[in-house]
Amino acid sequence: MKRLSDALRPGARVFVPALTGESPLLLAELADDPERARDVHFIGVQFPGIGKADYLTLHPTVRQTAFFMSPSIRRGMSERRADLLGLDYPGIVRYLDGMEPVDLAYVQLSPPDAQGFCTPGLCSDFVPIVWKRAKRRVAHINPALPRTRGTFTVHVSELHDTIEAESALLAFAEATASDIEDRIGRHVASLIQDHDTLQFGIGSVPTALASALTGHRRLKLHTGMVSEAVRRLWEAGALDRDSRITTGVALGSPDFYRFVAENQRIWFTDAGRTHDVGAIGAIPRFVAINSAIEVDLFGQVNSERATGSIQAGAGGLPAFAQGALRSRGGRSLICMAATAKRGTVSRIVPALNDQGLCTLPRHLADVVVTEHGIAELRGLSLDARAQALIAIAAPEHRDALASAWNGMLRAF
């Protein structure tokens, strides 16, 4: 019987999609016959905690190029079988577009229409970047995958091989917002005006923010990923029904995927467009809403590394922050709980140290939000910026931060 994995060959460089583009059929085949993965080099933009693929465990000879840290990639790096590239989204696009063409690109597609065109359904972020130059193109045609609207379609004549099989789509349950996230969400909502264009991702803060924004009107979305929060805003009447919701990926429940398929305003495109700094900057009143691990008193943001351990990657944060600051009336918001580890660790710190990474430098600092308030940093002096951040730290950590800052001032 013909299989998707028949196209794999030892020594091949293979692009595999992630998130809702991940093919359950390919993963099942490889789990049943891991020898198919012998000496294969997989390349893909996988996200920690989302998706089921773990290519490095299939066979001891597998190699992988990755862009986000995960437990599997961490082990693979120690075994010299995984390469982690420290790139943000525009950097990943440049890398994929400029690298040697892959031997094989997999894609999961909706069934073709009457003219033979398939859509990538719920995920159009990175496949289009490698697709045209791939030496071989193989598709899992999944009848469960809805047809969607966007810039990337695939005609059946482009495919070297296909397997049609219905497989359950990747489902993702949003985190429930706590009281802390609800307070952050309300603070963020107070900064957003009707008619603003928003960017936010997944997680408990976007969940809380959606609830806080239901009274707004004519909001627009340009983002890398849409989730259940978007449906909540749509059903509340907060979104502009005449504007496109531009995204690269949809992630959520089966009910949410039905909403995405039925909503004519949701438009999928690749990461080269969703994260284009110039295009974002041309959107008036663009508000980028992102999270962080810690922020220091200079306004530097670390969203990648905690206590020396890399947790993720730069992702879309740098592009969205830069685009927001170029936008007329735009804002870049960094949102986080003020503490970690049950309140014992302040996430506002005196200065980033050798246990962190600087994802956003201080010259891109704009607004930081915690449950304790809002620090608007743009245009503030060095000292005023530090005082604004200390004021939104957890009260029990403010004295230590102030003391550390005074010592740093004397050293300046």
Automatic annotation (TrEMBL):
Pfam families: AcetylCoA_hyd_C
Occurrences of domain Acetyl-CoA hydrolase/transferase C-terminal (ranges): 252-403
Hydrolase in keyword set: yes
PANTHER family: ACETYL-COA HYDROLASE, ACETYL-COA HYDROLASE-RELATED
GO molecular function, one term: hydrolase activity
Name recorded for this polypeptide: Acetyl-CoA hydrolase
Source domain of life: Bacteria
UniProt key word Hydrolase: yes
Keywords, alphabetical: Hydrolase
Organism: Aromatoleum toluolicum
Entry-linked InterPro entries: AcetylCoA_hyd_C, AcetylCoA_hyd_C_sf, ActCoA_hydro, NagB/RpiA_transferase-like
